[in-house]
Fold:
Amino acid sequence: MKKNIMLLSVLATLLFALPSAVNAATSFEDNDGDGVYENASSISMGQFGNIAAGDMTWTYSDEEEGIKTWTISFETSHKFIYFSLIPSSVSIDSVTVGGTGFAKVGQDSSGDGIADILIENGNSGSARVTVTVITTDTADEGCQLNVSPLNLNCSVNIPGIYFDDNGNEISAEEYQEVCGNTTTPDDPNDVPNSQTGSVVPYVAIGGGLLAIVAVYLFSRKANKVYKI
Structure:
């Protein structure tokens, strides 16, 4: 019994040390009865600002076919905005960007349907960007679209556009100097996570695994002593 408790404790500690992607959950209400559903609370876009309540909406373009049009709008002064569109029981059919001076310069879709979107802001100051997403329902319920901010760093690869690990745009030459390897320049033990831009402390993971092995060996030794 003690052995099981010790193993569970070590595993729990290790799991807490691992980073995880944070998805901005959205809940929608149709308060006016007009068929346009608005998010009921503010959604954080991390360093890029916030999507205020009511600034992410959806309505059916074709209810019979389950086709929805989503509109996501927020104010930002950042030159680049990088985030994930995370579908739940919907497929993402298209993503377009509107707003004076804004343009979609990158879109990377993964096998699980998540779309990473990179937008460039050509304005000199703060302006409002609008993202329009067309989706198709793939289930009878739970059909939603979530938004999660991503970090700009060396692991973001867009042809002709380069970033350092602080999210600053740099030249191709600077990129080779700063990001020539796949690790964070200041700490070779940190490896960028391509999904979240966060880093995984491999030293902590290795230490946790060693702890599990140590507990296992100690338990075996204790059992042998008991049998004698």
Residues 10-21, 182-205, 224-228 have pLDDT under 50 and may be disordered. The radius of gyration is 23 Å. Residues 202-227 form the longest helix (26 residues). Residues 28-150 form a domain with the Immunoglobulin-like fold (CATH 2.60.40).
